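ARCHIVE CARD
Drawer: 12
Card no.: 0347
Subject: one protein chain, sequence and derived structure
Cross-reference: see card 0346
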Amino acid sequence: MRLLPLLTLLVLCNTGMAQQGDTRLFTPWNGQADSTKPAAKAPAQQDSLPQPGKVNVAESTQIKALMADYAARRRPLDGYRIQIFLGDRAQAETIRRSFLVQHADIPAYLSYLAPNFRVRVGDLRDRVEAENLRETLRGEFPGLYVVPDQIEPPRLPGTAQ
């Protein structure tokens, strides 16, 4: 019970002190500068337009060599191809040639897996593209199937092959 009068006294003292401080009211801006604040300095005006600059790039010959080496390296990607043939070399070369004649826009690869040669076509990034190509080629090459493989990255338009 003794605490209640003490707490009341503290609350009354704090509110009395808060009201004695500097009271500020909001005044809307009237379009004129406030005389209590220092005026902002205007940015220095330039007499002429900015002049074009010159940039000097200093690069090491080692960096140039590393960049050229990186661009020259082959970086295969994980993707899919369609295997259209597995058998002896003569037949594999014949099938690859005939495929390239019929489908010049799709790359064909001949590889050796002892004791057979295989012909794989396409550089497809995902399984859906591979299945679509398989459906397209199914009538010409029965028994073909989709295989995961390292593919060549697609060429950008306007670059040399």
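Annotation on reverse: The first strand starts at residue 77 and ends at 87. The beta strands are 77-87, 108-113, 116-124, 145-151.
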